[in-house]
Amino acid sequence: MLSEAFTRTAPLYERVRHVIPPIEWPFFADDVEAILALKRQRNAVVLAHNYQTPEIFHCVADLVGDSLALARKAMAAEADVIVLAGVHFMAETAKLLNPEKTVLIPDTRAGCSLAESITPKDVRLLRQRYPGVPVVTYVNTSAAVKAESDICCTSSNARKIVESLGAEQVIMLPDEYLAQNVAAETDVKIFTWAGHCEVHERFTAAEVRGLRWQFPGVVILAHPECPPEVVAEADFSGSTAAMSDYVAGHKPGRVVLLTECSMSDNVSIQHPELEFIRPCNLCPHMKRITLANIREALEQNRHEITIDPAIAARARRAVERMLAV
User: Fold this and answer.
1) Which of 14, 15, 33, 260 sees the fewest Cβ atoms within 10 Å?
2) pLDDT for 216-256, tens place per residue?
3) pTM
4) What pLDDT, on a 0 to 100 scale, did the predictor assign at position 1?
5) Is 266 exposed, middle or buried (0-12, 13-18, 19+ CB in 10 A)?
6) Which residues neighbour 160 within 8 Å (Cβ) at sequence distance 6 or greater?
7) What gap in Å lies between CA 79 and CA 82, rounded to an integer?
8) May I ask the CATH class of domain 200-277?
9) Residue 55 class from Cβ within 10 Å (0-12 exposed, 13-18 middle, 19+ buried)?
10) Contact (CB, 8 A) for 21 and 51
11) Quick one: 4-111+286-300 is in which CATH superfamily?
């Protein structure tokens, strides 16, 4: 017998039925209904990254997008509580931009291989090696690393940020492949750091060629955290937001998104008439966020993000300087 929550959340299920089998929805319905009620009670919003699973992204999230979009939307959120359905650096960024609000992350283990690849000490050593060269730091870093930087960037605006500095040379960290892909598009000399995304680094040029052979006419979109040889083989490269916009604008009949798995699910819901080929690389950190722990975060006020005020002030400047460009 179906639960009352299942019946009441049936309209939400209609949004995701294209990617979630009917047999699974009863396992989500109670948490979905509870989260919606808790958001009203606590004046809370849920911010969800494009890599979140569809039952989160389409059913309980209030604001969605890539890292840049979430950073901007966090500033405009009219709420007392922000729950970040994403990874830890995203929650820190939301806190930097909303110091007076309560920011929660449902699972503290939701980290990032890029953020873990570099420390504040590493940035200080790079400044010593390249004196006077400005430091552009990807938002996929800790607040402490941002605090050592001149300006932040995302995959959406990386080239724009690099060129906005008017410098002949910049240090761009920590994603080596993103930096190399930006360097191929600009005359600015870029010094890189050997950090990689554990999702995107696994894609290969041979895999791209294999997809073209197996699925004739397929259009291949690659995230710029992929290795440069993968980007070179693709038809388009851009952030998750740019990939979503490409699909909406070009309507390729058969498409591959070379990025985290759930991105294809979320975009396909908006374009059920298109065929999405899914070479599936999962982010283990993003998948730590679930409906159950979003509910627990709101019920128990866990886990609250706090940042040392001295670090926060310096990191905030780097993020705000990016948002001003």
Assistant:
1) 14
2) 999 999 999 999 999 999 999 999 999 999 999 999 999 99
3) 0.93
4) 44
5) buried
6) 325
7) 7
8) alpha beta
9) buried
10) no
11) NadA-like (3.40.50.10800)
